[in-house]
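Listing S7. Sequence submitted for prediction.
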Amino acid sequence: MHKTLKWFLLACLPVLALAGCKNSNKTIVVGASSTPHALILEQTKGYIEKQGYKLDIKVFNDYVLPNYALENGELDANYFQHEPYLNEFNASNGTHLVSAMKVHFEPMGIYKGNKASLDSFSHGDKIIVPSDKSNYDRAVELLKVNGMDNANLVQVEAQNIPLMLSDCSYAVINGNYTLSAGVVNRCLITEDKESEIANKMANIIAVKSGHQEDAKIKVLLDSLKQENIANYIKATFGDSVIYMA
């Protein structure tokens, strides 16, 4: 009897091991900025659970660590960046990340610093802009369109800019950081929502190359295409976040 039981348990070990692996593979781990990305992902949990998966959202406060975590396999996907930044990151860091889907667009805007209107602009005014190349170029273009290209540009990491509005005449800030910092009401003007830049700079779900067709990634992408996501984004963020999926 003892030998029979022992044999039965040994025979079942491979099955039990596979079952354990299968269960762990039912968790979708996504890295995201806190606002609006993590808030949007929270709205997908109901759909994802109905498909037999669990969503684990890891919140990051910068633009670097979530890409390294994705490359290293700590995440299944991340959601915080646009494709030009992703391509720039890959080129600079030897990573192998790709866009799986465009989700939304956050218009970059010019925000009040010490000056309350664009009419007060004078050449040489100090304007703080993001330091990473793709967002720097985008900020420069926005300033140029609004006749503010002859300014004194100071480059700062994007996430820190909302904390420095008292130190400049104006600042150009990414939409997610204005939302999380609560400075949306200081916005003077944003990019045109119908422009080419809106499509080019859409925030994406990024995955490691070769994993675009993974079952859990397909579930994640489908969850973001549901009607409740479009409704939530419009009701919660208004014109600060434009749904594209």
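Caption to Listing S7: primary sequence and predicted structure tokens for the chain studied. The two ends are 60 Å apart (CA to CA). The CA atoms of residues 174 and 209 lie 26 Å apart.
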